[in-house]
Every structure is written in C-alpha cells, then in structure tokens.
Write a structure and sequence with these properties.
Blueprint (H helix, E strand, L loop, with lengths): L1 H6 L1 H51 L6 E2 L2 E8 L8 E10 L2 E12 H21 L3 H23 L16 E8 L4 E7 L5 E4 L2 E4 L21 E5 L5 E5 L2 H4 L10 H8 L6 H16 L7 E8 L26
Helix pairs in contact: 3-4, 6-7
C-alpha cells in the first residue's frame, strides 16, 4: 500500500487534491472569521462615534441666533472624518456684566481632549455670572483645568498614591476670553489663542496685535491680569473668532489659507454671520482639497443693537500696544 501511494501517479494526485481542498477550507474559514471580527469592530466603532458625537453635541450646545442684541453664528469642522470628537470649545453667554465669549483649543483629540474641554467650559459657564471682571474668570478656568488634569493623572495611575507635581506637562489649552459691554465696549484676555478679526462692510482686520499670555496649563498666570481694551463694537460691526486650524490649513503647495482675504470677500456687501462662516468653510475646503490638518471652530458675533448710546466711545480699533510683559516668571 505504501509502495502504491509512493509510485502511483493517481494516488499522488488524490493526496494533492486533498491537501488543496483542506487548504481552501482553512482559508475560507479564516476569511469568514476575519470578516466577522471586522464587522463587529466596525459596529462597535460606529456606536462609539455615535456616543462621542452625542457627548460633544451636548458640550458644544447649539447657540441661539440672538443673544442680548448680538447676532451669533458658530460651527465646527473636523479635520478627520473618522474623528467624532476634538478639543475645540466655544460659548456665548449673556450676563449682568455683559455678553461674555470664550473660544479655546485643547491640545490633542479624542475623549481626553473632550473631557478637558468640558472641564473648562463648565467652569466658564459658572464663573461668568459670578465674577464682575474677566481676570477672576480666567483664574477660575486655570484652576479648573489644573484640578481636572490632577484628577485625570490620579485616575490613570491610581497606584502612585501621591499628588502629582506636574499633572500632564504636555497638556495645554489656548483660550480667548472676550466681553462685549452694554455700550459695545470690548475687553479681551488672550492666552496663546489667535486674535479675533473685526469685521465691517468691505474689510477685516485683527482686533489686536498685543502679545498674548501663555496658554493655560504649562505656566502659572501672572499676578497682574489687565484685560486688553479694544474700543467699542459699533452697530453693524462683527467679531470673527476662530481656532488656529483656520489659519494653518495649507494647499498642496504648502501655502497657508488666506483667512483675512476670505473674510474681506465674505463682508464685501454686508456683514452676515452665517454667510461669513459659510464663505470661510467653503474656502478652507477648496484651499486644502478637503484635507484639513486640524479641526476648525468658527464663531461670528454681530452687534445688532441699533440704538447706540450718545455718550459711547468710538468704534472698535486695532490695538498694537503690548499690555503684557513677555517674561511671566
């Protein structure tokens, strides 16, 4: 029998066919298993994105179109279609001290960045009603961020058993605090964030050229925190706030997106917040070939308080002075 199997071609062909059939069955079973695992993974990923997206929609709740005489529009665009959450944050709240606005950008993406943004926004939503000046608001946001990062380190390393000296050294938040007073007065505290643009019919200029403070997180705030006085937002004028993804977007040749030119085009005939956002987003996608390198959050606020007080100061102006020293040691 052994001699037959070794010498007979028909027997050899039968054995070869059996091996091929066995290999085919094995490959089919493996492919089926991989397909099943992939389907389970994709289903879980879709569910996770759905939950994360719902969480972010609660965090960045839709803003009303009108807030205390100001017309408002805000939107966000993710750099990665597969990323449901990011670290951009914004809010506009009317208080007895004026309309207060925050725009910020947490370093990184994902649930960790979302949790950090939630800590900062939660503190902002409370502090703006309690504090009459912007400086105490900023200090409360700084403390909330530090507390959140310490708690995160303890949760990630529960066995250390001690208070971390530097919770997350690489974690920081760029932040812009802005207040629009009853007469349109503009006061700003800027922690490493891009300055807003002042929009008027036919033009867009940076609201200030002052040196900003460092981002929240790596360095302590200085003892003196004077807000930058940027004049007054006149009726019909608007402010455009953004995260740095709007300025850092590049085309295939590596050229940056001309944000100021896009804003000037958007307000050529009139200053309409929704139109401004639409124009900028469309320009960003064209410029980058729909391949953004960073998330983008945009916020436009127009003063529609038509009855300007007779004693009000002049319109908002570009500020070039530096009220903050560069050495905060």
């Amino acid at each position: 029998m052994v001699s037959y199997k070794l010498a007979c071609p028909l027997a050899q062909q039968h054995a070869l066919g059996a091996r091929i059939a066995g290999s085919a069955v094995f490959l089919a079973a493996g492919a089926g298993l991989l397909l099943h695992v992939r389907q389970v993974y994709l289903r879980e990923l879709r569910q996770a994105r759905k939950v994360a997206g719902a969480a972010q929609s609660v965090l960045l709740r839709p803003l009303p179109p009108w807030i205390d005489g100001l017309r408002v529009a805000a939107a966000q665009l993710s750099a990665d279609r597969g990323a449901a959450v990011g670290g951009d944050l914004y809010e506009v709240i009317a208080t007895e001290h004026g309309v207060r606005i925050v725009m910020g950008d947490v370093r990184g993406h994902g649930l960790a960045a979302l949790a950090t943004a939630a800590a900062v926004l939660g503190s902002f939503r409370e502090a703006v009603h309690d504090e009459s000046e912007l400086a105490p608001v900023l200090r409360r946001l700084d403390r909330a961020l530090a507390r959140h990062l310490r708690e995160r380190v303890r949760a990630e390393h529960p066995s250390s058993g001690r208070e971390p000296d530097s919770p997350v050294a690489e974690e920081f938040v760029t932040l812009l605090l802005l207040e629009v007073g009853r007469e349109g007065e503009l006061r700003v505290l800027n922690c490493g964030h891009p300055w807003p643009y002042l929009l008027d019919r036919g033009g867009a200029v940076p609201l200030s050229g002052a040196e900003p403070l460092p981002p929240l997180g790596p360095f302590p705030l200085p003892e003196d925190l004077p807000a930058v006085d940027c004049g007054r937002l006149a009726p019909g004028q608007a402010l455009f706030l953004h995260t740095d993804g709007a300025e850092d977007a590049r085309d295939p040749q590596g050229r940056f997106f001309p944000l100021a030119a896009a804003l000037t085009e958007a307000v050529r005939d009139d200053v309409v917040p929704q139109r401004v956002l639409h124009t900028v987003f469309a320009g960003l996608l064209r410029h980058s070939g729909a391949r953004l390198s960073d998330d983008v959050a945009l916020l436009a606020v127009r003063n529609d308080r038509r009855d300007a007080p007779s004693g009000a100061r002049g319109a908002a102006r570009h500020t070039t002075t530096d009220p903050h020293p560069t050495n905060h040691g």
